[in-house]
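Quarterly update from the structural biology core.
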Amino acid sequence: MDNVFDMHDFIGTSQGDEAHMLGKFLYFSLANLLVDKEDLSKLCEDMGIPYAGGTRLSVGDAFRSATGDIRERIPVTAMGETNIYLAYCRDNKRTSADILSRELVKETLNQRTNNYEKLANISYDKKDGVFRAENMAPDDAIDVPACCRKAEELFELYQKCANRKQIETICVNYLRGLEATKLSITGHMYFVPRTHMDKVDVFEDFIGLLGGLNRRETPLMVNSFFIIDDEKQRSKMTEEFYAAVKKEIATYQERCDYLIQSGSQSPSVMLSDGMVYYLTSRGFTTMKGAGIHGPQHHHKRSADGISAISAI
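Predicted structure, tokenized:
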């Protein structure tokens, strides 16, 4: 699955002759997600995808993940001056092995040095199982109670939900069963051979349904297209591309003809050096028209290949 697949000699398309298809290119991104394990298990069962529940996150990991997700960036403009405030959690000094504790801080971004204020203390006591938010300081820019409630809600979710890493394991195991080859060291890009490419649709539906179950409401992405190795098909697609480009050039030529013949003085047509640029099949050139006077003209060519006719 981790073998390198060279895409240099192949083309991708949304459709084509099935006889020349090698397989499918598949890309997906899970972003940041949390899915209830019961819902995930049922979804996998319904779609015939092997379910790997994984181990339950420890209380400590759930607490650190939940408080680590508290990140607010709030710009505030007053009296014509804009200040940017950041709110996030950072570690407290550990005083007991049974108490997990972090502090919610407000950071004010300044040009020379940043200012820090403690807004609340967030903790979890392993003995009594109580999540606490204490010593909350009122603040005009940061909604301190809302940040603390969000941390507690996320703490509960992290304990009962599958996270991105666990769901990635399910996805990778399924693709391994399709004999997929990974195309990139970073990111989820795969080549699925022709013998299994019909199951890519099942995987795409799985990712789409996961998005509906995601408690974080962050979008998930999945896409695929066919990989073809066929000279005839490649030539046909090249011809279609050039035909589309020529059609677009013809459209611009008609527009330029109209503007030049009407003597338009629009800055988008007339440049400051008195030259009028005109689009041809070879690129951009200029024609005699608005802003060009006198019977004699000569061509100038710039470094980027643009031709122009300017008055002598």
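The CA atoms of residues 44 and 51 lie 6 Å apart.
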